[in-house]
Amino acid sequence: MKRLLITLLGGALMIMGGCAGSHDWYHLPALEFDEVDYGYVVHKAQVRNIEVAYLDEGSGPETMLLIHGLGSNAKGWLRNIPAWSSDHRVIAVDLPGYGKSDKGHYDYSLAFYVQVLGELLDQLGVDEAVWVGHSMGGQIALVAALEQSERVERLVLISPAGLEVFDEGEGAWLSGAVTPEFVRDTPIRNVAINLKSNFYASPPEADFMITDRIQVRGASDFENYCYAVSKNVGAMIDAPVRDRLGDLTQPVLVLFGEQDRLIPNPYLHGGWTREVAAIGENEIPGAKVLLLPECGHFVQFEKPAETNAAVLDFLD
Fold this sequence. Notes:
With 316 residues, the protein is an alpha/beta fold. It has a single domain (2-315), classed as Rossmann fold, CATH 3.40.50.1820. It is built from 12 helices and 8 strands. The chain has helices spanning 2-5, 81-84, 110-123, 136-147, 168-177, 180-185, 191-196, 207-215, 222-237, 273-283, 299-302, 304-315, and strands at 43-47, 50-57, 63-67, 89-93, 129-134, 152-158, 252-257, 288-292. The chain has an 8-stranded mixed sheet, sandwiched between helices. Strand 1 (43-47) and strand 2 form a beta hairpin. Helix 3 packs across helix 4 (136-147) and helix 5 (168-177) runs antiparallel to helix 9 (222-237). Residues 1-22 have low confidence and may be disordered.
């Protein structure tokens, strides 16, 4: 149960291991994070002495800043970048601690991420952007909109963390349960189970999430990745936004999958995703909220056509 409980905060919480029955996955060669193929040119910038990796595609009057969820990276947007970059500049980041960005014992609070992302945008000549966040990335975008509203033109929140609230005891347990050692030592056979929990029906295009995760277990900075995942669980607990949703002034689009198995947490809270989505609709001024049928937590990857169209319609 411990393994299942932690998925509630993770979005694309790829901290597990492998796939029973796929024996070839047990013999994949180890890869450094920088050796993982993203399919795009990966740029890097120095922000606060941290090398931050990002994709930078397209051009247009608006810039979209794409922020991944816990345990994931910029590849989680591969099915969206082509559509969105046709008329917009699209910047998809690897947050510090993830993907091809530097990993270390950083602060890793959500405010830290907001500051890093703001300084990255400064370096790229972007004053304000449409902040698009998935799961933990959605909560980061919410913090940015509340704390640095001048940087956030509009918000797109996809299966966002932060709307579901955990009491003090739940938060303390969750923060203590996901240690770096727990992340590091999760056996290979469980990653497919974890991956599939992010989807209503896992598409074959998502298989790279399994193979990438298995291969980077041998990376030289894998321990620091595990540390980042662990710290970020507590960071989400420590950055509540629910009581401040009414202070948002930006136009907001919220997307949920109707069959999200992670939000609300099925073990601590139970209930239905539509109940969490209703929080956004009722408490965020003027928010447009969409629930996609036959869709799980990783909305933008499972239903890319519907997601891409909804976001472009919102931006237009």
